[in-house]
């Protein structure tokens, strides 16, 4: 039974090892303009995944041209010539309807796109051609799929789990749209992490030794392609209780965030583009307007991006585009001063995110130790100048502005994955947009609209909240939406979109209350459990009616049967949203403190939270008050008839109706999945065809060249050469004229036919090329074996002619000598026969035959070498010293007889004494068990001559 248990345990361990061997996780920093991918796999910690151009970041661009889909740099090349067929800057369009101000700005920036509203959802849809449409989720899913391919190529195995960065100002609709895009790409999202939180984590994990129990405050200023964010973060070491003891871990907390959704490098690039376009029109080189030509506009946009980067390091630079419009070239010198005038109003907005972040955190710049620059936009000198004037301290430039977010996210991915263990670094993000619940309540003066805040501004999450409705006796409704957004500009509030999130309808309230009516029952109200998860997405976990029943102490146990208790216990084990009820005398659970830093707050209907003290009516995670009786003091008697409160719960049916931008569903979702699957299959088929076509073209080219070389032409007969030449020429003509419409299978068949035709030819050339080296190796082995044979023969002649003292037997020496002789004779004969053959004849003396002969000779030599290594000579016999004998006394007569018997047949005990006193090795001990012992050797150590200790090795022992 123990053996069976052990085998089961070993199998389980092996299964775990096999399961974890190929595990790998990734992170995707999905920005507006660029995408970065990082992986963590066994033996590869936090590595950037390179794209096919071996670059560390990839442009977010997807192009469709002539039935071919391209990504990244290839897509941008297509976009310069056909801008309408290349889609870029997709992040800002996620989760938005067509009438959103952000979409309107996108249409103004890129007027050549044909954007139509989704007939069901009203979201953005690109009309690619009369038959093809793409929604934003599909295009983002394509880029995420490409990111997954990059991760798989870097890791060498499957990668399905990811942490994806999103802008911190993403609302509920935008976050859910990103999750759905990842689902369309076949990626399991471990978490959506805010980009500034990922940057802060990357900053902290390499400086964890610098933090202590005192909070340190820093500001991250991130200006990317389309937006700018200022974030205030605190670092400190906190103590948490885990596994029964207290541990200290570093923790980062997001305290304040300010952002500008439209301030970034893209807007600067667009202003440069328009400036260059106006200058070109002013030159009057052509009557046509450059702004009405999408291709010319795309060329100017690309040149403006290059010019912006150069002006960040130079005072002036020339912008030049060949064949901009009507084959007219364009060249213009632009100074940094002119660029700064174009963007003067943008630079004035640099300070706004900083001021908003300070206001949100209720901190001042005095206690912020450092301002860290993040994002490519912060390289612009004027941006740094304006920022320096606001913060009044030196700007930190010691962070990798391009890769800090993706590396912080991949650290989080490794932490969330089951296959890796990392040093704990606690992160507490903050709610950017406060969320409230709105419901109606009847009063004497009429219906009153009541608002209760669930998550205030910068509340940490993940977190659970419970809202209690204690005035309703029938079915009712409530709405969930965004609360007052005082810190935001009115224009930004419009960018968020619909402020109402969901409408919740409850049914069965009256029936549940009637079911629990009774003199000893007290209705505690309807409790709605809300949860904001790690990705910042709000969920309604469940709704229940809570009733408190007063029963005598003796009847409390009878209130719930043992079977019911068992069922409740099992149900709690498999409940994800509800944690076990907290007892006052117990410590706070580990997941509340560390893994899931949640606050359990209960806001009762009609009660306001005391803002000064921050106190609320707190309950356990199950939403009920803890009325468990405290243990009595020692010596105090407990009244068994004292009443006890028992909490009963009844689930209430709830129906949620989303009021924000809806997600893909039903037929639309199935259609998107089928479209992406078809595109992926087409890409796979195209890649396979391209690789096979390249292999076929290379084979034809190499074969034609080989026919012209002496080495290959001499190894083929004239008839065979003519046959090969005709076949290769025929395939070459087919490639030039008819291969355009061929598939991968057709190309593969032609390649197989050519390889089969030339197989024997290439084999002969290889044999002729490698045969001299193989013969040289065989001759060297024969000479070495001959020298070895002579050496061991000399050693055998010097040894005593006894079986025990000889290393090698006569048969062994004769066998090696015969093998050497036969191999040498065979080689000479085989070489003679091979030289008689033509070069195009099938060779008889092949490399394989030579290898077999060398292996046979090597086996014989190695056998004797190994035997010599393990051979040990037998120990020399020890001479006995003459002992003067005296007549034994009658008392010693019995002892003398026993001692004489031991000399004739030594006992096991005396043998052990001899071996322990000597220096005999393990191999000698083994020989002593096989060979008979020397009867003349004494067992008395005192009688051994000092010059020859027992067990001394012979003079040939080192051979």
Automatic annotation (TrEMBL):
GO biological process: endoplasmic reticulum unfolded protein response
Subcellular location, record wording: Endoplasmic reticulum lumen
A GO molecular function held by the record: ATP binding
Secretion signal, residue range per the UniProt entry: 1-22
Chief place of localization: endoplasmic reticulum
SUPFAM superfamilies referenced in this protein's UniProt entry, alphabetically: Actin-like ATPase domain, Heat shock protein 70kD (HSP70), C-terminal subdomain
The entry's keywords: ATP-binding, Chaperone, Endoplasmic reticulum, Nucleotide-binding, Signal
A GO CC term attached to the entry: endoplasmic reticulum lumen
Family: Belongs to the heat shock protein 70 family.
Full protein name: Hypoxia up-regulated protein 1
């Amino acid at each position: 039974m123990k053996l069976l248990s052990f085998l089961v345990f070993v199998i389980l361990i092996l299964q775990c090892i096999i399961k974890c061997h190929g595990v790998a996780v990734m992170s995707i920093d999905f920005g507006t303009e660029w995408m970065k991918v990082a992986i963590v796999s066994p033996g590869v910690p936090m590595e950037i995944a390179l794209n096919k151009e071996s670059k560390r970041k990839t442009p977010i661009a997807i192009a469709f041209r002539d039935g071919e889909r391209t990504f990244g740099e290839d897509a941008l090349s297509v976009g310069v010539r056909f801008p309408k067929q290349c889609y870029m800057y997709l992040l800002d369009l996620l989760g938005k309807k067509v009438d959103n101000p952000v979409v309107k700005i996108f249409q103004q920036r890129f007027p050549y796109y044909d954007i139509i509203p989704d007939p069901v959802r009203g979201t953005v849809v690109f009309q690619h051609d009369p038959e093809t449409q793409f929604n934003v989720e599909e295009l983002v899913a394509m880029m995420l799929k490409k990111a997954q391919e990059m991760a798989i190529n870097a890791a060498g195995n499957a990668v399905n789990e990811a942490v994806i960065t999103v802008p911190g100002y993403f609302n509920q609709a935008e976050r859910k749209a990103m999750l759905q895009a990842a689902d369309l790409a076949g990626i399991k999202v471990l978490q959506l992490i805010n980009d500034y939180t990922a940057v802060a984590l990357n900053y902290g994990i390499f400086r964890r030794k610098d933090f202590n129990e005192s909070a340190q405050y820093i500001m991250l200023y991130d200006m990317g392609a389309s937006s700018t964010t200022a974030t205030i973060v605190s670092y400190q070491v906190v103590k948490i209780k885990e596994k029964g003891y207290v541990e200290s871990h570093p923790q980062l907390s997001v305290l304040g965030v300010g952002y500008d959704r439209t301030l970034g490098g893209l807007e600067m690039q667009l202003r440069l583009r328009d400036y260059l376009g106006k200058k070109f029109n002013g030159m009057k080189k052509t009557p046509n307007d450059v702004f009405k030509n999408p291709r010319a506009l795309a060329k100017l946009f690309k040149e403006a991006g290059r010019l912006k980067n150069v002006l960040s390091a130079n005072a002036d630079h020339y912008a030049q585009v060949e064949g901009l419009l009507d084959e007219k070239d364009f060249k213009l010198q632009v100074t940094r001063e002119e660029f700064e005038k174009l963007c003067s109003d943008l630079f004035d907005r640099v300070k706004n995110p900083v001021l908003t972040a300070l206001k949100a955190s209720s901190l001042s710049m005095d206690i912020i130790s450092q301002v860290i620059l993040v994002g490519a936009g912060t390289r612009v000198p004027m941006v740094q100048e304006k920022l320096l004037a606001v913060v009044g301290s030196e700007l930190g430039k010691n962070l990798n502005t391009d890769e800090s977010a993706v590396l912080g996210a991949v650290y989080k991915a490794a932490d969330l994955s089951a296959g890796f263990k990392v040093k704990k670094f606690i992160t507490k993000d903050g709610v950017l947009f406060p969320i409230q619940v709105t419901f109606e309540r009847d009063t004497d003066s009429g219906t009153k609209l009541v608002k209760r805040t669930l998550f205030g501004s910068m509340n940490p999450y993940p977190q659970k909240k419970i809202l209690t409705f204690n005035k309703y006796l029938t079915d009712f409704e409530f709405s969930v939406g965004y609360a007052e957004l005082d810190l935001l500009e009115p224009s930004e509030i419009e960018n968020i979109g619909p402020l109402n999130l969901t409408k919740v309808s409850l049914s069965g309230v009256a029936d549940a209350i009637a079911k629990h009516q009774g003199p000893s029952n007290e209705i505690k109200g309807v409790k709605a459990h809300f949860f904001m998860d790690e990705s910042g997405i709000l969920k309604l976990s469940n709704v229940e009616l809570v009733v408190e029943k007063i029963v005598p102490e003796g009847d409390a146990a009878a209130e719930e049967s043992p079977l019911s208790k068992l069922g409740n216990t099992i149900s709690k084990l498999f409940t994800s949203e509800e944690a076990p009820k907290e007892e006052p005398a117990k410590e706070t659970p580990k997941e509340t403190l560390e893994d899931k830093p949640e606050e359990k707050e209960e806001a009762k209907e009609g009660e306001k939270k005391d803002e000064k003290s921050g106190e609320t009516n707190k309950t356990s995670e199950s939403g009920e008050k803890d009325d468990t009786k405290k243990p009595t003091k020692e010596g105090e008697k407990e009244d068994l008839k004292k009443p006890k409160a028992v909490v009963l719960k009844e689930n209430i049916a709830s129906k949620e109706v989303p009021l924000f931008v809806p997600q893909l569903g039903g037929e639309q979702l199935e259609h998107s999945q089928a479209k992406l699957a078809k595109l992926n299959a087409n890409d796979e088929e195209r890649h396979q065809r391209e690789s096979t076509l390249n292999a076929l073209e290379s084979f034809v080219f190499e074969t034609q060249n080989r026919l012209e070389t002496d080495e290959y032409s001499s190894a083929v007969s004239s008839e065979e050469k003519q046959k090969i030449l005709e076949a290769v020429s025929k395939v070459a003509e087919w490639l030039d004229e008819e291969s355009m419409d061929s598939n991968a299978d057709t190309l593969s068949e032609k390649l197989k036919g050519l390889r089969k035709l030339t197989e024997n030819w290439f084999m002969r050339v290889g044999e002729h090329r490698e045969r001299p080296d193989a013969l040289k190796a065989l001759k060297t082995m024969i000479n070495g074996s001959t020298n070895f044979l002579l050496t061991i023969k000399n050693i055998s002649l010097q040894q005593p002619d006894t079986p025990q003292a000889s290393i090698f037997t006569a048969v062994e020496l004769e066998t090696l000598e015969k093998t050497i002789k036969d191999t040498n004779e065979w080689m000479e004969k085989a070489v003679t026969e091979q030289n008689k053959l033509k070069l195009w004849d099938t060779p008889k003396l092949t490399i394989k035959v030579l290898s077999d002969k060398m292996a046979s000779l090597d086996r014989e030599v190695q056998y004797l070498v190994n035997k010599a290594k393990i051979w040990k000579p037998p120990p020399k016999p020890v001479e006995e010293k003459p002992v003067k004998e005296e007549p034994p006394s009658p008392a010693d007569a019995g002892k003398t007889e026993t001692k004489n018997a031991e000399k004739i047949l030594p006992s096991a005990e005396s043998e052990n004494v001899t071996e322990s006193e000597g220096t005999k090795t393990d191999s000698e001990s083994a020989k002593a068990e096989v060979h008979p012992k020397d009867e003349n050797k004494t067992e008395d150590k005192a009688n051994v001559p000092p010059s020859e200790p027992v067990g001394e090795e012979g003079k040939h022992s080192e051979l």
